[in-house]
Specification:
Layout lengths: L11 H17 L2 H5 L2 E9 L2 E4 L1 H14 L1 E12 L3 E11 L5 E12 L5 E12 L26 H14 L1
Parallel strand pairs: 1-6
Antiparallel strand pairs: 1-2, 3-4, 4-5, 5-6
C-alpha cells in the first residue's frame, strides 16, 4: 500500500502541510498525478456530480481542466480533526471564449490511515469577472497568495444559506 505523508492524526502544522501539497498538486493540472493523492475507492461529491474511484477522478479532472483554462488555485486550512480537514479555496480560470471567472468554495476531506483522501465533498460558487482584476497570478504549481475577497453576496444567497442552516439544526 502506498502512503501519502503527512499521515493522520493531523496537527495544525501537518494539516497545513497537507493543504499546501493538495494546492500544489492541483495547480499542476496533471489529472493522473493529482489522482495519486486519493484512495483507489475514493468517493467525491463535487457540486451535483458524484465521482467514485481513481479512474473516475482522472476523467473528472481531465474534463474540468479542458473547460477551466489557466486554472490558478489557492487553498487555506479552515479546520481539522484527527483524520479530517476542511479548507476554503479560491481560483481563477477562463473558458475557451476568454471569459474569466473566479470560483470560491469549501471542501471537506477525510483521509485513511495511509494519508490518502477517501472522501471529498466540494461546494463552490463561480462568478464571472467583468470589471475585476485578476489576482491569482502565481505560476503553475506555486500558489502562495492569500485568498482574494469574494464579491458581495446577494441577499437571496444569504437567505438560502440561512435556510440550509436551519434545516440541519
Amino acid at each position: 500500500m502506498t502512503t501519502r505523508p503527512p499521515l493522520p492524526p493531523f496537527t495544525r502544522e501537518t494539516a497545513i502541510q497537507k493543504v499546501r501539497l493538495a494546492e500544489d498538486g492541483w495547480n499542476t493540472r496533471d489529472a493522473e498525478k493529482v489522482a495519486l493523492a486519493y484512495s483507489l475507492d475514493s468517493r467525491w461529491r463535487n457540486r451535483s456530480e458524484f465521482v467514485n474511484g481513481r479512474q473516475d477522478i482522472i476523467a473528472f479532472l481531465a474534463r474540468k481542466w479542458v473547460k477551466e483554462l489557466d486554472h490558478r488555485l489557492i487553498k487555506e486550512l479552515w479546520a481539522f480533526t484527527d483524520n479530517r480537514i476542511a479548507v476554503r479555496f479560491a481560483y481563477e480560470w477562463h473558458d475557451d471564449s476568454g471569459n474569466w471567472y473566479r470560483s470560491y468554495g469549501n471542501e471537506n476531506w477525510e483521509f485513511n490511515d495511509d494519508g490518502l483522501m477517501r472522501l471529498r465533498f466540494a461546494f463552490r460558487r463561480d462568478d464571472r469577472m467583468l470589471n475585476w482584476k485578476i489576482q491569482l497570478t502565481h505560476s503553475k504549481g506555486c500558489g502562495k497568495e492569500r485568498l482574494p475577497r469574494p464579491p458581495p453576496i446577494s441577499p437571496c444567497y444569504i437567505n438560502s444559506l440561512q435556510a440550509i442552516k436551519l434545516s440541519v439544526q
